[in-house]
Every structure is written in C-alpha cells, then in structure tokens.
C-alpha cells in the first residue's frame, strides 16, 4: 500500500483558498446574490440548504488556511503559543461546520415535500428519509459532543489553579 503524504502548510493554504472560494460562491447563491446555476427549476430544496453547504465549504477552507497561519501540526493542532482568538475561531468553525451538516441532513429527513433517492440501491422515500434521519441524529449528537469537548478544552486553558 502506498504511503500517505501529509499536505505541507503551503498546500493547506492553497487548499483552504480554493475551498473558501467555492464556499463563498455557494453562500452568495444561497443568499440570492448570484443566480442559481441552471435556473430555479434546478433547485430541489430551499436556498438556505445551498447557503449551509457553502458555509461548510467556506469554513473548512478558512480552517485549512488557519493551519498555515497558525503553524498547526499535521493533525490541525495549534502550537501552545498560538493566540487564544485563533483557538476560539478553530473551535467555532468546527461547531458551525457540524451544525451545517446536521441541518442539511435534518431537512432531507424531516423537511416537507417529496424526496427522490437514487444510486446503487433503489430505496424508496421512506427508507431514504429514515437513513438520513438516523444520520442527522448521529450528526447532531456529534455536534453536541464536539461543542462540549471543545468548550471544556477552551475553558480548561483559562484555569490557573495548580489543582486544575
């Protein structure tokens, strides 16, 4: 099996720029500032879904750029001397990305209107919604776990007590 190569900080910067630009485009489409590709007939859900997808891409790109600016290691961990605001932003980006994914999955599973699922398995609407519903619930639970874990980590950094 070939060895996996970790992206260099400069590669992460350019990956981040690319993803942020893609995300910004979809944010602008979702906000109604740019036309929907293919016209309104090509839209199969509310515009806020497009905005959520764009926000997830944009924040993912911003997080990748932060790895370069903050001198993060290959795991995305910032060095001990990184500014506190950078740690807070990294945490907030992660929470927001999780929320975007959970919201999109929730709308697919529980939102109004018909859904059409296609692919390798010929699932009907009920099974498709059930699978997305389970995924949405798992994603919301992961969102909560990430938010609590990150908040504890950030708040724990403020403790100066020797017993903390």
Number of domains: 1
Helix and strand run: HHHH
**What is the share of helical residues?**
55-70%
Low-confidence stretches: 160-164
Rg calc? 19 Å
What structural class do the secondary elements suggest?
A: mainly alpha
**What's the main sheet like?**
none
Q: What does this entry show, briefly?
A:
This protein is mainly α.
What report would you give on this structure?
- With about 160 residues, the protein is mostly helical.
- It has one domain (about 10-155).
- The chain is built from four helices and no strands.
- The radius of gyration is 19 Å and the shape is globular.
Which features does this protein show?
globular, mainly alpha, 164 residues, single chain
Helix and strand arrangement:
Elements: H1 9-30, H2 47-69, H3 84-110, H4 125-156
């Amino acid at each position: 099996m070939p060895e996996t190569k970790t992206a260099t900080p400069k590669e992460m910067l350019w990956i981040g720029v690319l993803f942020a630009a893609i995300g910004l485009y979809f944010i602008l489409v979702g906000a109604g500032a740019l036309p929907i590709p293919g016209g309104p007939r090509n839209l199969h859900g509310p515009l806020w879904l497009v905005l959520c997808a764009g926000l997830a891409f944009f924040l993912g790109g911003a997080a990748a750029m932060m790895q370069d600016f903050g001198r993060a290691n290959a795991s995305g961990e910032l060095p001990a001397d990184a500014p506190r605001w950078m740690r807070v932003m990294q945490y907030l980006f992660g929470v927001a990305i999780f929320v975007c994914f959970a919201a999109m999955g929730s709308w697919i599973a529980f939102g109004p209107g018909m859904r059409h699922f296609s692919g390798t398995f010929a699932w009907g609407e009920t099974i498709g919604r059930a699978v997305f519903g389970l995924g949405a619930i798992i994603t919301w639970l992961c969102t909560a776990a990430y938010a609590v874990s990150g908040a504890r980590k950030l708040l724990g950094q403020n403790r100066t007590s020797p017993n903390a």
